[in-house]
Recover the amino acids of this structure.
């Protein structure tokens, strides 16, 4: 079974293999939108319109302008919600190609005029940055390097706009093989579960939010 992986799918599997299997493969259950996810989607759209099209932020999001205004002013190439995908040999491909291996969509991507430095940002609307994971930036940085061979450095930020936190990370091209090897290993764990048909549930505090109501750990 050929699978297309992403940062979110890897995290879903590692959080609970049973949920991953039921939701992403069998599609027996569907995650529902919440007030928090709907708010996040609306903020992302407002930021995209501001950075890409120059539309002013709605008044209800004006307090976030200090985060996105510097991004919009950078000189070079700016891309918003750019669909990226790579094959298992790390070469870039179409987002929906049959041989796609990993997918990613940076909220914001900037390539400087020389083409050697990229900046990637992901917007977060959560109420805490306590569990911020720069691994998301790491994977996106590798995909950017695959797409742009001249890029030598990727500077990434997780922008927790609600709580005002900025998590930074930097990745260099000489680490590209190491990064991809790590994510390949994480993807292999999923593929091993497919081969063996083993999708054990993993209990956590998040079980009460899980859509898989048939699971013994679900408290809904």
């Amino acid at each position: 079974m050929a699978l297309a992986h992403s940062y979110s799918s890897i995290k879903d599997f590692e959080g609970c293999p049973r949920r991953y299997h039921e939701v992403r493969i069998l599609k027996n259950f569907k995650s529902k939108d919440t007030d928090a996810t709907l708010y996040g989607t609306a903020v992302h759209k407002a930021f995209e319109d501001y950075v890409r099209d120059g539309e002013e932020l709605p008044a209800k999001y004006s307090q976030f302008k200090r985060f996105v205004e510097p991004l919009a002013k950078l000189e070079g190439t700016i891309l918003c919600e750019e669909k990226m995908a790579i094959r298992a040999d790390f070469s870039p491909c179409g987002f929906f190609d049959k041989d796609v291996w990993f997918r990613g969509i940076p909220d914001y991507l900037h390539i400087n005029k020389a083409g050697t430095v990229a900046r990637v940002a992901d917007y977060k609307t959560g109420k805490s940055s306590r569990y911020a994971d720069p691994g998301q930036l790491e994977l996106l940085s590798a995909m950017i390097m695959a797409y742009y061979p001249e890029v030598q450095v990727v500077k990434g930020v997780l922008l927790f706009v609600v709580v005002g936190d900025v998590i930074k990370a930097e990745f260099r091209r000489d680490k590209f093989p190491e990064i991809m090897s790590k994510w390949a290993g994480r993807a292999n764990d999923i593929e091993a579960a497919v081969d063996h048909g083993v999708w054990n549930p993993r209990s956590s505090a998040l079980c009460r939010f899980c859509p898989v109501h048939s699971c013994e750990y679900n408290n809904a």
Notes: The chain has one domain: 5-209. The longest helix spans residues 176-196.
